[in-house]
Every structure is written in C-alpha cells, then in structure tokens.
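Quick one before lunch.
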Amino acid sequence: MNWITVVWSINMGACLTLAAFYCVVWCKQRENPVHLLFSCSAVAAAAISVFEVEMMNAQTVEQYQSLVRWVHVPTWILTVSFVAFIRLYLRAGRRWLAWSIYGLRTLILILNFISPVSINFRTITDINHFSWGGEIVSVPVGLPNLWGFISSFSLFLLLIFSVDATFTVWRRGDRRRALLVGGSMIFGAILAWHVPLVIWGVIEVPFFLGFTYTAVVAAMGYELSDDVARAAHLARELQFGEERFRRVVEAAPSGMIMVNQDGRITLANLQAEKTFGYPREELLGRPIEMLLPERLRSGYRDLRRDYLRDPQARPMGAGRELFGRRKDGSEVPVEIGLSPIHTSKGLLVLASIVDISERKLAELEAARQRHDLAHLARVSTVGELSNSLAHELTHPITAILSNAQAAQRFLVHDDVDLDEVREILNDIVTQDQRAGEVIHRLRLLLKKGEPQEYCDDVDLNEGIRDVVKLMRSDLINRNVNVDTDLAQNLPAVIGDRVQLQQVLLNLMLNGCEAMADYNSSERRLLIASQWENGAVRVSVTDRGGGIPEEKMEQVFERFFTTKKEGMGLGLSVCHTIINAHRGKIWATNNGGCGATFHFCLPIVGVGKQAVISD
Ligand code: ADP
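Model of the adenosine-5'-diphosphate complex:
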C-alpha cells in the first residue's frame, strides 16, 4: 500500500469518526440540526477522499469517467451541508449567497449527469500516469467541458460566502471562532481551486478536494466539541444549582411545596411535612387539593386557573383567610406566597406556606384583653354615674311607694273612689316602667358580650338621645346644660350600639369634668351630628379649659390622665372602639374656650368597605 492511500485513508477515517460522533450527538438532541449537518459534511468529505484515491489508482478511462461523474454526489452533499452549517451554527453568511450556492451546485449535479462524461470533462481520451511524491498516480487526459465554468463560479461564490461569514463573526467580537472556523473555511475554499486548474491542465497534481475540507471539518469539529464541553459544564452547574435549590428549600423555616401545572405536588420540605402532618412520600405526586379543607377545594381550582393565566410572585387569596387541612382532618390557618418557576419541564409554582395558628391565637388573646379593658372602663364609667343612677331609681321607687301608700289609705274607706285608685295605679305603672327602663339601659351598658362582628345598623341620633336620657340626673347634679344639634335624616352607621353609646358617654362625662371648675352658668355641652362624604360625624363640645396643643394626641393614649382619680382609660377605649368601627376620632380646641371631640363613622352601604383615613 503506497503512502498516498494511507494518508487519504487516515483522512477518511478521521472524517468518519467525527461524523459518527456528531451523528450520535444529534440523535440525542434532535431539536438542533447543526450536528446532523456537520455529520453529513464529514461523511461527504470522507466519501470524496475515497473517490480521489480510486481516481489516483484508476487504470482505465471508463473507470476514471465513472469516478469523475459520481464524485459530484458527495461534493454536492458537502457543499450544501457545509453552507447550511455555517448559516445555522455561526449565524453568519448572506442568505442570498447561500441560496445561490445551493442552486448552482444542484444545477451542476444535473448538468453533470446529462453531460457525456461529467461537468468537468467532455471526453477523457487517456489516463496519464506520473510520479508524485515517489508514487505513481493517474490523471485524466481529455477535453474539459465548457459547463465546467459554472462549477468554477460556484467555487468562487463559496469563497465569497466564506470570507463574508468570517467577517461577520469577527465583527461580532468572536475573534477566536472567526480565525479558526472562518480561516479554515477560506483556506479550504482557496485550495478547492486546484480542481479546475488540474482539469485545465495548468497544474499536474492528483485531486485532493476531500483533503482540503479536512482542515475545515477539523476546525468545526473542534468548535463543536468546545460547545459540547460547555454544555456538559452547564449541565453540571445546573445540577449543582438544583441541588443547592433543594437544600435551601429544605432548610426554609416555612413550608415549601412545589406544584406542577396539573396541580400535583413535585417537591415538599420538612416544614411542609410538619405543618400538614404528612410524610413526604405521601405528598409527592398527589394533588395539592388534599391539603385543603373540602369546603375550599372547588374555589381553589378557579384560583389555580387564574394564577396560571398570569403567573407572578404574589400572596395567595389577598385579603382572605386561608386554611390548610392536616392529615388528621383538622384545619390550620395559613398564609401563602406563590412564585412561578419556569423550568424545562414547564411552569412550576412554588408555594411558601406559613402556619399562622399561633399568631391567630395571640390576636384572639389581644382582642379578648381589649374587650376586657373596654368592659372595665365601662364599669368605671357607670361607677361615676352611680350617684345619679341611684337618684334616677330612687325617684320612681319613692313615687311608687307613696302612691301605693295613698292607695292603701283610700282602700280603708268604704266609699272608695275607684277613679282615684285607677289614677294611682296608673302612676305606679308609669313610675315602674321608668325604673325598669333605667335598669334596662344600665344592664345593656354593663353587658359583657363576646367580641363580635359589627353588623347592627345604628342610628346615632337615637344613641345620642338615649345617652342624654341616661345622664339626665347626672347632668342636673353637675349643673350642665346640654344642647343638641342633630342632623335630619341622618343615615345609619354599621356598628355595635352599646359600644358607640359608651363612646358618647365617655366624651360627655369628660366634657362635664372639664367644666367642673367653671361657673355653672357657663357649663354647656353641645352634641352635634352631621353627615358628609359617606360618613356620619358626631362632635361633643364643652366650654372647659381645653387641651394643651402638645397633648392633643397623647390624650388617647392608654393610662394618660391629668385627673387626680382618673384611670386614663376612657379616651383610649373610645379610640379602640372607633378604630374597630373603621372610623376616626380626634380632638380640637375651640376658638373661644373648651375642647371638641369628634368622631366619624362610615355610613351603611358605603361603610361596609370604607375606612376613614387621615
Ligand atoms: P380619665 O378621664 O380617666 O383621665 P380619659 O382617657 O377619659 O381618662 O382622658 C384622658 C385625659 O384627657 C384626661 O385626664 C384629660 O386630661 C384629657 N381630657 C379628656 N377630655 C377632655 C376635655 N373635654 N377637655 C380637656 N381635657 C380632656
């Protein structure tokens, strides 16, 4: 075997090895045709090498004619796959140039098969044997085909295409790739010119077209292998990243559950196991609905659909109370944050679940304490009223007693005046009703109900009148005159009638106390109601000493008092009550003297959603 056969065979073997390798890569990543194109061009380069060796060893004209005709098939494959590879892999080379090359090469192939011998030769008359590199090689002797210039022209276009693509890659800043792949492309495209020169008899060398492409194939193969290595590195990094992600999720203090688009659990951490009481293997692959109370399951499906339509990181069911269901069937109040995670397997949703049972318990406890405090303040307020209440009750009871005694006296006589007795009994009933009313109001005020939703429609004018009635004797004792200026047709507010009466009572008592040191003719309270901008406003104005400006806010603080026996709870309780009613309470000093306390509450209809803000 001569050295030419050996070298050309090595070239062929190298090309086939690269072709096989990238064919396998393509089989695994079918979405990317780059590897297949590269594989095709390498197979074609190997095939050309085989043809060339055969041509060098050809002994007869017929043998040579057949080889020179059929070598155009691998040449077509090589050129087309090579140009397509450059366009796809380097994203370079002008499209019109590429299509011109595809068209020309196809035309050449057709002309090649309809020509008497091939596109290159009209006739081959003889085989010339000459010594090249110490070996005897065969070259054809004959007339070149005139159509052969199309073949030369296509080589010229290939050269321009290669130079243009190389410049594009260079300009993009990818200099290494431009030098390596582009340089070898230009080198190959120039060397390919030996074919027409041999045919025209300008030079006498064997064809080595397959060989010239080996450099190009090697350069491209190197670049591809670099990409494969980079992809493998990236995959390792991703794997590492995924592992790290899993570890972070596992260590998270809140429950983490990942759900796919079908609503099935794909990941759950330790805290999620603890929150719901399920071991992990009972969660994975199961529908997320299993962690919801049955009453919420159907609503949740709609929520999930909506979320998948617009997946963004956000809290779930904003403003609503959320509950999960433990393995034992009990419910757990939770807060849930959702984050979409886009992966190669599609959109996944990561839910971070915080068990808020303890917080809820603490909130309930705080509400209970607030309620107790409010009750305490109410009892102390009633304590302050006790003198006048005693008076209020003593009066009807004394009247009842004296009426009953009068009736007894009448009944001693034989000629009983029944009309007189009837009148006495009517009086007794009226006085009894009055005493009953006082006791009823007092019981209402002292009632210690559970904290409740505010759902009564409260007529504040009626509330004001009630409180004024309740305080009647107290006001007389304190020599305080009360004026009311109540708006006509005042809309109702939503709330708790008794709590709102307590606010009024506190404000009126404070007003009375503020005027205690003033001349009795000046002791006047004005209670006004009005409505504006969807809210009812009530104000209690006194003619006392007013409030120092720097204490305006402080008076609402718990235990703030300037009174010798004050508790400093009244206004803070008022503040809590009004806040809980989504209203606002504040104080102002009057222009002349005294202070005015105002509170606003949202009216029914508007009020169910409204909150009065500063
Ligand atoms: P207490 O009446 O037990 O002191 P409050 O919370 O009702 O508790 O009132 C806190 C403080 O606010 C009072 O001690 C007083 O200094 C001030 N204050 C309340 N109402 C008035 C008012 N109408 N005029 C002037 N100061 C007032």
